[in-house]
Amino acid sequence: MAVCAVAALRGRNEERLAAGGLLAGWALTMVAYRYQGHQVEWGILLIDVALLALLAWIALRSERYWPIFAAGFHLLAVVTHLARSADPSVTGWAYITAEIIWGYLLAFAIGYGAWTAPRYAQAGDPAPAGATRR
Q: Which pLDDT score, from 0 to 100, does residue 126 have?
């Protein structure tokens, strides 16, 4: 919630969009959460794939580097779901712990982007909207 508040107050459009996606994903995960790590969370996997698509889209269009890290951390969360489905011997504790760690790193990346957004806004954007990094 704190990251979303920072993104709303200090962030630009891409930070707000990423934080909104994170908040929507969190809310939908609360609805879809069922198995408490005993099985693969297929509903949460679908939510995570949708958030990964949003973060990848932001990363491809952004001039900054934080969206690459955010998308990368969330890709690791999606791969953790797939690893659990490929190897059922992965314990529920390891599965849920890994998901929590990737979630905190994702939130940190969005928070960093939102916190430093005013500095980049003051520097001016010499590149046109939609331009890639040079």
A: 55
Within a 10 A sphere around the Cβ of 130, how many other Cβ atoms?
9
Whether the per-residue pLDDT at 116 is higher than 70: the answer is yes
**Cα distances (Å, whole numbers) of residue 103 to 41, 68, 89, 121:** 15, 15, 23, 27
User: Looking at residue 39, what is its pLDDT?
Assistant: 73
Q: Which residues contact 88 (CB under 8 A, 6 or more apart)?
A: none
> What does the buried/exposed string (b/e) look like for 97-122 if buried means 16 or more CB atoms within 10 Å of the residue's CB?
ebbeebbebbbebbbbbbbebeeeee
Higher pLDDT, 9 or 119: 9
CA angle 45, 31, 78 (to 5 degrees): 15
Burial 30-39 (b: 16+ CB within 10 A, else e): eeeeeeebee
- pTM of the entire predicted model: 0.84
